[in-house]
Amino acid sequence: MINGKQLRDAFISGANNLCNKKAEVDALNVFPVPDGDTGTNMSMTIGNGAKELEKLGDDVTVEEVAKVAASGFLRGARGNSGVILSLLFRGFSKGMKGKETATGADIAAAFTLGVEAAYKAVMKPTEGTILTVSRCAAEKASQIVKYDDSTVAVIYGMYLQSKRTLAQTPEMLPILKKSGVVDAGGQGLVYIFEGMWSVISGGKMIMPKSEEVSSEKADYLYCVEAVAKRGEKACEGFEKALSAFGEIVEYTEGTQGAKFHIHTNEPGKVITETLSFGTLLATKVENMSVAHTELKFEYKAEAEETKEEKFPYAEVDPSVEYGFVSVCAGKGLTDVFTDLGCDNIVSGGQTMNPSTEDILAAIQATPAKNVFVLPNNKNIVMAAMQAAEIADRNVVVIPSKTVPQGISAMLSYDCDASVKDNTEAMNAALESVTTGQITFAARDSDFDGHKIKEGELLAMKEGKMVYTGKDMELICTRLAKALVTKETSMVTIYYGEDVSEEQAEEIRSAVEAKLPNSIEVNTIYGGQPVYYYIISAE
Question: What Cα–Cα distance (Å) separates residue 322 from each residue in 289, 302, 325?
Fold first, then answer.
């Protein structure tokens, strides 16, 4: 039997273990395009819950701990893997209702509820994923309690079974076997169970990496992590130059840029050196010598204040029938959705999956009786669905998986139509547009019959890779031709932040020359990251 303090510590330990190993989980992603990364999304999801759990005292019940954890996971959920994780613990929380302590049987029954909730939320569950790993772990727990009701036996059994099932995932999903990896989401769940077992078995909590480093009194004071895009005058020998400022923990470099993690006493010089290489896309600097939990809470509070300023809560105005929330990244695309009538824009997309709480804040700031939400990315739809469930007004999620789908849905809106009719029209509009995207390979890969080198251009049609190459004009024209049909009357090319207006016009002319004269070809500045071009055919 475990009490609330033990369950709290087990959850925090599981969160820390996953956060410490998120890079390992990210590396298991088989699709070579830049994405939100499973490890990052899951660690941010469970990390949000852990922060709330750290605020609890020792005199708590398992019901209170499970409830706080579920709420934190729900609001912090990012990406499909993060949402599934939050659903597992949301169901677990229901199983802990009314309990001060928990037996092994209670734990088994609660996790079974969590698995059921996760499976119900996924329209077409795929075996060989985190769903399978969680289900098999819960089934094992239910078997164990028939002869051993101790929490130690149950949680250890779940941990061992999750590892066994994870090892079998390549046999369930051919793409995993071909890539020589296990499922990323399943691996993340195994790390969570491992962290929980560490506490339940002997009371040892797995600590965050930064605190482990400080306890060893490392020579370096700061930890710097950064992602940089290669500039035109990128310095040669960037890794060697960085090594002069400290100890490099992780370093990867490709034709597009570099990602690194270094321990140093001169973070300013590291940043300056990085700027000589190119443009900083993301950076994080932490002091490893102090326990900075309180500072993190302060930063979190500041972030919430900023969010509140951007999306101030608005009461429902009975006179406002409809409102709209859209998710996108890039000034140009933001302007497009704003011009089409979107009330609030949530910044996000590929590599930047917004959390359930981010989307909820935008919904709650829209004073309409009925709010339509356009996720515009397949990895954001589930988070939008969760936000809709906890909003205090009627919310309809239109499951747009691309920006052009979202734009098409907005164009089909009729202010005089009913909610039902608008929902049907906007959903139908998703099928009227075909989307293509041009990006780059984030890693070497042998994917779907294509041998891909890091930095190569990738052309995708409806999320599936169709071409690879190095010639931008050739790959854009080939993709455009693959998108059009006999019914196509218009092709729109949204160009990204790394593309000049002149370059976009050259691509437009090349595409136009390869398509029938009856098809109108236009360019619009999107300013989106990750994708050089987003092409729609309708």
Answer: 52, 31, 10
d(CA 236, CA 270): 15
Domain count, the chain: 4
Q: Give residue 299's pLDDT.
A: 36
β partners of residue 323 = 371
Token pair belonging to 275: 């700027």
Provide φ and ψ at 2, rounded to 5°: -120, 150
Amino acid in the structure at residue 434 = T
User: What is the per-residue pLDDT for 297?
Assistant: 38
Domain presence at residue 306 = no
The pTM of this model reads 0.78
Residue type, 416: D
Structure tokens at 392: 């205090």
**Judgement on whether residues 112 and 192 belong to the same structural domain of the protein:** yes
Residue 192 and residue 66 share a domain: yes
Mean pLDDT, consecutive 10-residue segments, the chain of 538 residues?
Answer: 92 93 82 67 90 90 93 90 93 93 94 93 87 95 92 93 94 84 92 94 82 48 78 73 84 76 82 77 64 39 45 91 94 94 88 87 95 94 93 95 95 95 96 91 65 80 86 93 93 91 94 93 91 93
Token couple for 458: 């990738």
Cβ partners under 8 Å of residue 407, min gap 6: 336, 337, 340, 433, 536
Distance CA 301, CA 322 (A): 31
Q: Please give the Cα distance from 436 to 535 (Å, whole number).
A: 5
How far is the C-alpha of 467 from the C-alpha of 450, rounded, in Å? 8
Pairing of strands 520-525, 490-495: parallel
User: CA 61, 155, 128, 188 torsion: positive or negative?
Assistant: positive
The number of beta carbons lying within 10 Å of the beta carbon of residue 490 is: 13
Q: Is 315 helix (H, G, I), strand (E, B) or coil?
A: coil
Measured distance CA(356)–CA(182) in Å, rounded: 27
Using an 8 Å Cβ cutoff, are 107 and 159 in contact? no
420 and 368 share a domain? yes
pLDDT at 292: 42
Q: What is the pLDDT of residues 34-93, one digit of tens each?
A: 554 788 889 989 988 899 999 988 999 999 999 999 999 999 898 889 999 999 999 999
Task: Give the CATH number, domain containing residue 480.
Answer: 3.30.1180
Q: 430, 459, 481 — which closes off a domain?
A: 430
- In a domain, residue 297? The reply is no
Q: How many residues does the chain have?
A: 538
Domain range for 280: 210-287
Residue 254 domain-assigned?
Answer: yes
Instruction: Report whether 69 contacts 89 (CB < 8 A).
Output: yes
Query: Domain check: are 280 and 202 in the same one?
Result: no
Question: What is the rounded distance in angstroms from the CA atom of residue 123 to the CA atom of residue 376?
Answer: 18
- Same domain? For 367 and 461 the reply is no
> φ and ψ at 21, to 5 degrees?
-115, 20
Which pLDDT belongs to residue 449?
61
